[in-house]
Design goal:
Helix content: 40-55%
Structural class: alpha/beta
Shape: globular
Strand content: 5-15%
Distance between the termini: 8 Å
Radius of gyration: 17 Å
Bound molecules: adenosine monophosphate
Number of strands: 8
Number of helices: 9
Strand order of the largest sheet: 2-3-1-4-8
Low-confidence stretches: none
Largest sheet: 5 strands, parallel
Length: 218
């Protein structure tokens, strides 16, 4: 079992690589962004509370996301956890460390995916996903073969995130540099940090991540 964090700005490819690891290695993806969007779609009280904050591109409170993660980590699971979009602040990183220790688990690697801002804007503004299977597409670089129809599962439920626009992205990026980027130093100092070039092809980035995981585990 191996537990990793994928760390990087919005659009770095964390979700795409997490999905690959789920498919290839049977790991469990824990994305706080997905959990929050599910809560919004289900219309829960918490979902209503975070909707505005999320659409602006700000971070929701530490308390909410730590609570969400706490519910999911009830023990060791399968091949291990991929934390995707969590932690995003130093208090969240401390809370995750304590939580893993309490559950008898450890963090094996923090993989920083580095991508420059200009590439992030281009990636985010054309992004859409299949609501049924989660496949990620892009207007310019990875369109569906048939407009509006998922290549993988045939669904026509294509979705664009409300916060995938240039204004929200600017705020999300600044939130990342102010509150999340300090985690790079935090994990580097612990000897847990590995950095990959997130600009490469999906499979090349995936191979690099696999190499890091294999070196850290077992
Ligand atoms: P993501 O799907 O990871 O890009 O997250 C989308 C939005 O959900 C973020 O812009 C935040 O508003 C919120 N969010 C997700 N994860 C966290 C987190 N760990 N801490 C605070 N806010 C979060």
């Amino acid at each position: 079992m191996i537990n990793i964090i994928l760390l990087g700005p919005p659009g770095a490819g964390k979700g795409t690589q997490a999905r690959k690891l789920v498919d290839d290695r049977g790991m469990v993806q824990l994305s706080t962004g997905d959990m929050l969007r599910e809560a919004m779609a289900a219309g829960t009280e918490m979902g209503r509370r975070v909707a505005d904050v999320m659409s602006r591109g700000e971070l929701v409170t530490d308390e909410i996301v730590i609570g969400l993660i706490e519910e999911k980590i009830t023990g060791g699971q399968g091949a291990g956890f991929i934390f995707d979009g969590f932690p995003r602040t130093l208090p969240q990183a401390d809370a995750l460390g304590e939580l893993l220790t309490r559950r008898g688990l450890r963090l094996d690697a923090v993989i920083e995916m580095r991508v420059d801002d200009a590439a992030l804007v281009a990636r985010i503004t054309g992004r859409f996903t299949c609501g049924a299977c989660g496949e990620v597409y892009h207007d310019a670089t990875h369109p569906t073969a048939k407009p509006g129809v998922c290549d993988v599962c045939g669904s026509t439920d294509m979705r664009r995130r409300a916060d995938d626009n240039e204004d929200s992205l600017k705020l999300r990026l600044m939130e990342y540099y102010k509150k999340t980027a300090p985690l790079i130093g935090y994990y580097y100092a612990r000897g847990d940090l590995f950095t990959v070039d997130g600009l490469g092809e999906i499979d090349a980035v995936g191979a690099e991540i696999t190499r890091i995981i294999d070196a850290r585990c077992c």
